[in-house]
Amino acid sequence: NAGVTQTPKFRVLKTGQSMTLLCAQDMNHEYMYWYRQDPGMGLRLIHYSVGEGTTAKGEVPDGYNVSRLKKQNFLLGLESAAPSQTSVYFCASSLMVSGNTIYFGEGSWLTVV
Amino acid sequence: QQPVQSPQAVILREGEDAVINCSSSKALYSVHWYRQKHGEAPVFLMILLKGGEQKGHDKISASFNEKKQQSSLYLTASQLSYSGTYFCGTERDPSGGGADGLTFGKGTHLIIQP
Predict the structure, then answer these.
(1) Per-residue pLDDT tens for B29-59?
(2) Which residues of A46-83 are buried (b: 16+ CB within 10 A; e: fewer)?
(3) What's the CA gap between A69 and A72, in Å, rounded?
(4) For A84, how many CA atoms within 13 A lie in the half-sphere containing its CB?
(5) Are the C-beta atoms of residues A109 and A8 closer than 8 Å to each other?
(6) Residues in chain A whose beta carbon is closer than 8 A to a beta carbon of chain B?
(7) Taking the CB of the first residue and of the last residue of chain A, which one, N or C, has fewer CB atoms within 10 A?
(8) How far, in Å, CA of A99 to CA of B32, rounded?
(9) Contact partners, residue A4, CB within 8 Å, separation at least 6
């Protein structure tokens, strides 16, 4: 059981570079999420999707874009990386929102220098 | 708005009990509890739905007081494996304007010493 898979696991970027984080889930979940985790801040929602072709902003969306072209995939893009985007990024998915378990991927460690 | 967790950190001896609290200023539909070990993903523990639930498995249980919009996680006879950071995630009532995922507290660091 793969569950939620994120790639890459580790990446170092230079300021101004762009990159895409890929999240894939094999549980046929409708809802997918991208969170970032910084020391002492907990997990903060960047963007989420309630189904294929839909995206919505979360708590900290600035500097990120997302796409959900296929139900199983949710992509997080950084167009022009900044040091403030150094963080651990977690993708998650759930069958529906409202009272359903949210399953997390293993995380992607991103450093912007 | 982020739920407030307390305490921020707890140090226990193996076998002692702990209570972690989570409170929100918003009307909640559910409260989710997760444990995260350093360098790993959060691991789901349990969900409590509005209506005032109490759940538990093994020596970890939780309650949800809907009137106070508060949840508490209880760890009894703690084991070394319980060490980690505990997060509550709150889900607001969808009837209040839509569902938008979990909002997490800043976490409670739990250290269990032998």
Answers:
(1) 899 999 999 999 999 999 998 876 777 777 8
(2) bbbbbeeeebeebbbbeebebebeeebbbbbebeebee
(3) 9
(4) 6
(5) no
(6) 31, 33, 35, 40-45, 48, 50, 56, 58-59, 90, 97-107
(7) N
(8) 8
(9) A23, A24, A25, A27, A91, A92, A93, A103, A104, A105, A106
Give the A:B interface size as CB pairs under 8 Å.
64
A33-70 residue pLDDT tens: 999 999 888 899 999 999 999 999 999 999 999 999 99
Which of A42, A48, A104 lies at the smallest CB-CB distance from B100? Answer: A48
